[in-house]
Amino acid sequence: MSYAPSTAAGKQTAQQLADISRTLYERGWMPGTSGNISMRLPDDPGRALITASGRDKGELTARDVVEVDALTGQASRPGQDRPSAETSIHAAVYRVTGARAVIHVHSPYATVVAHRAAVPDAASSVRVDRFELLKGLGLKDPTFTDLPVFPNWPQVDRIADDVAAHLAVAREGPPGLLLADHGITAWGDSLGQAKNRLECLESLCQLLVLSQSELSVSRA
């Protein structure tokens, strides 16, 4: 069953999710039904809207979203469609960072870096330094960052637990993470900021790939 927000704020949020989904689809970052986007409701930040599972991101509408508890990821209205399979990861980010929007995509360069920097069955990180684009991430020290890479466990809740545990201690880390062989997730205080940070991170990953130098990977 599709969801129709009842408040003006809810309707605006749902439309924003649909609009940005189509934009990212057109870039080739959300092919087919891949990827997911969420945003806390402006009038009730304890709840969030997230793209429904299995939706073509190039044809997403404001009705193709699900309302969930922002901190648990549990659907907050009966009879809705299933939320994205990765809702628990969004909830982990909201719970620990206080972000207001989260975007997960399969952008090509970040996915390549996530593949190359992955460590079997363990978290790792890839060092990114010197590039001017680091200033777009809101880092305390914009000269470098260690972008975390998490195993892509079949159990998504296990990924969410890994993410939450990492973010709880890495308070000054980047506003984004990689999933091994999978893609990238970024967040921000608004949907616009999350999108900007996502673009910076994808561009940084592109530079890492194009530089053809060996990635500086550390095991967590």
UniProtKB/TrEMBL annotation:
Record carries keyword Chloroplast: no
What does it do?
Answer: Catalyzes the dehydration of methylthioribulose-1-phosphate (MTRu-1-P) into 2,3-diketo-5-methylthiopentyl-1-phosphate (DK-MTP-1-P).
GO molecular function: any one?
methylthioribulose 1-phosphate dehydratase activity
> Keywords in UniProt for this one?
Amino-acid biosynthesis, Lyase, Metal-binding, Methionine biosynthesis, Zinc
What's this protein's family per the entry? Belongs to the aldolase class II family. MtnB subfamily.
* Primary gene name: mtnB
Q: What is this protein called?
A: Methylthioribulose-1-phosphate dehydratase
InterPro entries reported for this sequence = Aldolase_class_II_sugar_metab, Aldolase_II/adducin_N, Aldolase_II/adducin_N_sf, MethylthioRu-1-P_deHdtase_MtnB
Enzyme Commission number(s) of this protein:
4.2.1.109
Tell me what reaction this enzyme catalyses: 5-(methylsulfanyl)-D-ribulose 1-phosphate = 5-methylsulfanyl-2,3-dioxopentyl phosphate + H2O
> What NCBIfam families does the entry give?
salvage_mtnB
| SMART domains for the chain | Aldolase_II
Cite the cofactor comment: Binds 1 zinc ion per subunit.
**UniProt xrefs under HAMAP family:** Salvage_MtnB
- Pfam families according to UniProt: Aldolase_II
User: What start and end residues bound the annotated signal peptide?
Assistant: none
Query: Which pathway is recorded for this entry?
Result: Amino-acid biosynthesis; L-methionine biosynthesis via salvage pathway; L-methionine from S-methyl-5-thio-alpha-D-ribose 1-phosphate: step 2/6
Residues covered by the Class II aldolase/adducin N-terminal domain: 15-209
Residues reported to bind Zn(2+) = H104, H106
The record's annotation in SUPFAM superfamilies points to:
AraD/HMP-PK domain-like
The reply to whether Zinc figures as a keyword in the UniProt entry is yes
Q: Which cofactor does it need?
A: Zn(2+)
